[in-house]
Design a protein that fits this description.
Blueprint: E1 5-6, E2 13-25, H1 29-45, H2 55-70, E3 72-79, E4 86-88, H3 90-96, E5 105-106, H4 108-118, E6 122-126, E7 133-141, E8 169-176, E9 181-184, H5 187-194, E10 200-201
Antiparallel strand pairs: 1-2, 2-3, 3-4, 4-9, 5-10, 6-7, 7-8, 8-9
Helix pairs in contact: 1-2
Length: about 200
């Protein structure tokens, strides 16, 4: 993609910004060791019915918290300062939109790409790379995982708090399959879809 990318919503130039997403795990040797060691220590130190704080819980938390930080995913994505829109390019799509570790849910990157290829619905926005109209899709999400996916980093969902009501939920987005990019008109949509705890169920 060219150095200067125009926001599909017409706001002007977008900027590449590096962000650390604490809700997405990435492999970092030290961070993974801290993360798992802290988790195991906390689990083994919790005494049900005890009013006293076990020192193992404190030590576990001191390992777990930096482990979460170090093993979180860092990406550089295009962001609009005016409308809070986000563009994910190929590498970020593969890094952020993964499946679950147990294979119980669909790979989100594969699902989105296949849905865009099959979509007959034209999007509202033009692709900032090739200039053609992007395709529009609605991605179904498993509602149960929209409550809280991380006990250390609680979900702050602002305008999507009503998503936890129990009905089926979807996220609408536009994308260009030829240029392999996704456009989210609000960064909150990208954050929800990217979370490790958000899955696309296999029955979708």
């Amino acid at each position: 993609m060219s150095a200067e990318v125009q926001c599909p919503a017409g706001c002007g130039s977008m900027e590449y910004k590096t962000t650390r997403n604490l809700k997405i795990r990435a492999f970092d040797p030290l961070g993974t060791v801290f993360y798992l060691a802290g988790l195991i220590l906390i689990a083994n130190s919790i005494e049900v019915g005890s009013d006293e704080t076990n020192p193992g819980v404190i030590i576990g938390a001191l390992l777990f918290i930096p482990g979460v930080y170090l093993s979180s995913l860092v990406t550089t994505d295009l962001r609009c300062n005016n409308c809070a829109g986000v563009i994910l390019e190929s590498k970020s799509i593969d890094q952020k939109l993964k499946g679950d570790a147990l294979g119980l849910a669909l790979n989100k990157a594969k699902y989105v790409r296949e849905a865009l290829s099959a979509s007959k619905q034209e999007g509202e926005y033009n692709c900032p790379d090739c200039g053609k109209k992007m395709s529009h899709i609605s991605v179904p999400l498993e509602e149960e995982v929209l409550h809280r996916s991380n006990i250390v980093v609680p979900d702050v969902v602002d305008d999507i708090q009503n998503w936890t009501s129990g009905a089926s939920r979807t996220i609408d987005l536009d994308g260009c399959i030829e240029c392999d990019l996704l456009w989210f008109d609000k960064d909150k949509k990208e954050e929800v879809l990217s979370r490790d705890g958000t899955i696309i169920p296999k029955h979708s």
